[in-house]
Sequence to fold (344 residues):
Amino acid sequence: MNKTIKPAIKLATTGVAALALACAAGTASAEDTKLRIQTHFTPEQLSGEMAKDFVDNVQTMSNGEIQIELFLSSSVVKSTETFDAAATGILDCDMTGGAYQTGKNPAFQFAGDLLGGYQNPYQQLAWMLHGNGYESVNSLYNKYDMEFVGWWIPGPESLASTKPIRSAADFKNWKFRSPPGLATLVFKNLGASPIVMDFNEIFTALESGIIDGADAANLTNNVGLGLYDIAEHTNFPGFHSMPADHLACNKAVWDKMPGHHQAIMKTAMQALALKNATANEVANAKTAKELREKGVNLYEWSAEDLQAYRDAVQKGWVEFATTPEAKSMLESHIAFLKDMGAMK
Fold:
């Protein structure tokens, strides 16, 4: 009798184990997430390297359940088209910046760069994490079928120029690459001639003389673009712009992701934000030293010229905030800055 029962028990146990394995395999398969993400950064730039680190971290933390195909250098569509490509399913996520979408709604400007409103990345990230920034930005993105996941901010940018940029007076008739949005308005008011062009067209335009300079990135990322091989003038510390690069995903794709995958993505973005801000602070100080040794002119603006720029920016904020969403987001920023004592 025992001989009959034991094989039966063994068979039943084996069957249960096989069923459990099958169920586990089915569950793992159902929870797999595959994402196609595009960034405008190149492999040679520090930010490009960090984008790849972000992908590695997400895949590791998810034990391979999240698989990401990363497209660097805007290799699928133009930088300005990345958001729409993700919203329509050509890509899944956009890793460029909100300010590229100001043509849809000027509120996207305030969802990416306040142009001199914040002095460092930590203040701006504080608005997102501890003000009502996350909710405010995500509410805007959801209207365009996208989910805002998080920011990473390299820090204040420096201009690159073939002509001296010692003060606001040097902006008169200065032809430069500008991102779309508020920057074009502010620099026009200061006498410059902004030309909107894609991020990856800057080097050729500068080399051919189409532009005199560029508003592209911070010192280190500008070096990665090769801009100081042509442009012998820059400003440091930067002050004019501090864009937040974002990660935003197709909302339908995001909503289908398991909760723990969403949490991994958000946590990985916060880790990227800290690493990015600190790494760029160190790298920019080192880059500034190296550029001086190579003969590049680094200009530190006077307090008077900085104030002239900030006055132009604050005037531009009001002129640019023409929709209810833009006005609301700008008011949120200003209230937070005042609470922090960073603005009167």
The domain at 33-153+243-282 is CATH 3.40.190.170 (D-Maltodextrin-Binding Protein; domain 2). The two ends are 90 Å apart (CA to CA). The first helix runs from residue 2 to 31. Residues 6 and 12 are 10 Å apart (CA to CA).
